[in-house]
TrEMBL record:
One of its GO terms (molecular function) is 2-oxoglutarate-dependent dioxygenase activity. InterPro entries: Phytyl_CoA_dOase-like. It holds the Pfam family PhyH. This is Uncharacterized protein. It comes from Achromobacter insuavis.
Amino acid sequence: MNQKLKALLDAFPVPHDIADECQKLNTAQQRALANFLHYEIVGGDGFLLRDKSEMDFYQFNHGLNELVARILALRYPMPELPELSPIFGELGTLAEAVKTLRTHGYLVADRKLPVSTLAAVRDEIGKFSFYEKRPGATLRSGEELYALGASGERLESGTFWLRDLDQATHSELLGSLAFDPYILAMVTQYFGCTPVHVQTNTWLSFAGKGDKSQLSSSAQLYHQDKEFTKFLKVFIYLTDVGADNGPHCYVDGSHIDELFTRGVPFSTRLTDDEVLKYFDANRLKSVTGPAGTIIFGDTSAVHKGLPVTGGYRCILQFEYAASLYMSPIEPFPDLPVARLEAIRQRDISTRLVQNYDSAARDRYRGFANTSKSASIMDRVRSRIQQQIVMPWKLRRLKRVA
């Protein structure tokens, strides 16, 4: 076994059965796991490690992610959550739902956001500001965009993105959803350890011109996320989503036989025809549903949002990770003391709010500001790395089942 890994496993510490599984990992996976455990034991800013160690993510396949979650559970076990949600009512048993999620990578929940909560959430988002990813675009409020959606007007860019994620993160209403016992119970049982809340986001999509560059920037081509080692997203439809309204699509079970194990670099955008080179057509699924539909998705699975061809779509998204190792996401400002105390009173580990750290946020921004802005040559080098060098490196990686 890698000697650094052995020392870190002893320091964590882990039981013999987990140590034996670590012993069976290949050399590259042992090195990647050692880097991960060093971060978890020593601490520091996970975002500072991304540029240095990002290739390690190619070692974190489904099997290693599951092993990592078992190791984390030794220090951050699943919290005992209330059996009653103030929003969704009795939790009941979630075992079958979690089993489905683990098997398929996605689950359309058997409960929906109540009508009153849905209306309140839409009102809250109506106050937020949104932008388009095109030069000269002006900010628009959520209320303005609701009116545009009702008018059926076709727009140049198609998608409007939340300008200030902190506004959503620190909204008491959206926070009550992000930390709701039902949502947390599903995420926690999927991980097997205490999660870290890493994002609250929302966006609106309209019928646009639909060329490949626009579809790519709007996440409307198939792709695989790899933002953390193990992570889960919760999507909530805030409008009715039929076949014309841009339903969320995914490849069933592709969080297990991941796209990168087939030689495709992370975040590569693929058309439908390209995806069918790697997966059978019967594995391609889409999720339609009324406003209030809740989707749990491990987006290490291949997924996309279909382009909107009529009406519009508004989505609320929460994201959770098992660890902030190599996090690409800017930390949030500190939680207000009263909200932090309310979480502590529920006997939930503050691991859940580890990403709420104003000091780390300042360090992140300092790090980002000192990074050299991308020149034309930088972009050319990045394209060569993504389309030529990375696929070659992936072919050399030993594929692990």
